[in-house]
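Reading a protein record of the kind used here takes only a little practice. The integers have meaning only within a learned vocabulary of local backbone shapes. With that in mind, consider the following protein and its fold in token form:
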Amino acid sequence: MNEQEARAHHTHVIDDIVRQITWQSQKQLLQTLSRPEIGLTLPQMVTLFAIREAGLCRMSDLADITQQSAGTLTGIVDRLIEENLVGRVRDAEDRRVVQVMLTRQGEQRLALVEEARRADMDRILSRFSLEQLQDLAQLLQLLLDGINELIGCRDLERNANMVE
């Protein structure tokens, strides 16, 4: 097997492993979110993290960040408001504009998610030595850098096509 064939083979194997990790991680995350003390759906969690990242934000900005339609996002945010995890705030400069922000309960719920995820990750990685953890972290960062680079290139291509 020449180098090009070997790279193609390893790329296929890695792609399959990443797909399996993605699938199994999502299933494990859904189990975590369904714990009684957390009680969130995946879209709710994504929305809460996006709001925390953005701080005070408009619904239109939140829809862009989360890649959800305005209608879907409105339903998610309404449920989060009912649970007192998110609050609506009128814009001080333009009272017609409504923004959303996390409540203290929303922050606490996200802290529970992060705590549960760290505990799960500790358990998953318990069989790795410290050296293996360091190597894995470096390799995963390289993979993430490649993904981010590909996304960035695609965003540039999409923006260039919109201009034409």
Observations:
- The chain has a mean pLDDT of 91.
- Helices lie at 3-33, 42-54, 59-66, 70-82, 104-124, 130-163.
- The chain has six helices and three strands.
- Residues 6 and 12 are 10 Å apart (CA to CA).
